[in-house]
C-alpha cells in the first residue's frame, strides 16, 4: 500500500439468518477482524430470531471488535433486500463494503479496494474477483473473473451480473439516491441493484485480483436451479429490459440459458457450474 495515500473510513454491511452455519459465520467474522485496514464499524443485521449458537458468536465478536460491531435485529424475517436497506440506513460512512455471512475476505481485501477508491474518487461501485472453493473438501473450483473497466462492466451487465456481489464496495449516497435494494424482489435483488446503480450513471470498476473466497455447497447449486430462483432470474431480467437498459435479445438469451439449467438433471447443472461456466 502507498503510505502517501489517505484511505477513507468504511462500514461493513452484512446480514445473518437462523439457517446460517455457525462455523461458516465465525470464519466470515474472523476474516473481517484480521483485515490489514480494518473497518471502523461492522453493521450486522439479524434477519429475525437466530439460533443460540449464532447469538453466542455475535456476543463473542461484539467483545472482540471492541464496540465496532453494531448489531440490529429485525423482529421477524424480512429477506435479503430488507436487511440490506436496513443496514444501508444504519451505516455511518460513505463507503460501504458488502460481505456475506459465509464467505471469507482475504486479509488485504479492504486495503486494496479502499486504496483503489482513494486513487479513483469518481468510482461509485467497485468489486473484484472471487475464488470459489468446495465447502466440504476445501478444494478450489474456479476463479470467477468479472469485467474490469467501466464500459465493459456496463455492457456485461445487460445479460449477467457484472460484479461478484460479496465483493462490492459502493458509495452510500449513490445507493440511497436510487432507492437502495428492491424489496419486492424475492431473489436476484443484488443484480437489479447493480444495474440501477449503473443506469443512474455510477462509474464502476473491478479489481482483477482475488480478494474474497466464495464457499460452494450442495445447497448453493440446488438454489441456482430451482423453480423459485429461475422465476426470479427471469423477473429481474424482464425488469431490466423494460427499463430500457438492455435489448430484447439481452433479455432472451440468458433466460433461455437459465431455463435449460433448470430442466437438465442436477448432476449436469453441477458439472456445468463447476467445470465450464466458472472457467
How is the topology of this model organized?
Elements: E1 10-16, H1 22-33, E2 41-46, H2 52-64, E3 69-73, H3 80-90, E4 95-98, E5 104-105, H4 109-119, E6 123-134, E7 140-144, H5 150-156, E8 169-171, H6 172-177, H7 189-199, E9 203-216, H8 218-225, H9 227-242, H10 248-263, H11 266-277
Helix pairs in contact: 1-2, 7-9, 9-10
Would you write up a description of this structure?
This protein has 279 residues and is α/β, with parallel strands linked by helices. Helices cover 44% and strands 21% of the residues. Strands 1, 2, 3, 4, 5, 6, 7, 8 and 9 form a nine-stranded mixed beta sheet that branches. Strand 2 (41-46), helix 2 (52-64) and strand 3 form a beta-alpha-beta unit. Helix 1 packs parallel to helix 2 and helix 7 runs parallel beside helix 9 (227-242). The radius of gyration is 18 Å and the shape is globular. The model has no long low-confidence stretch (mean pLDDT 87).
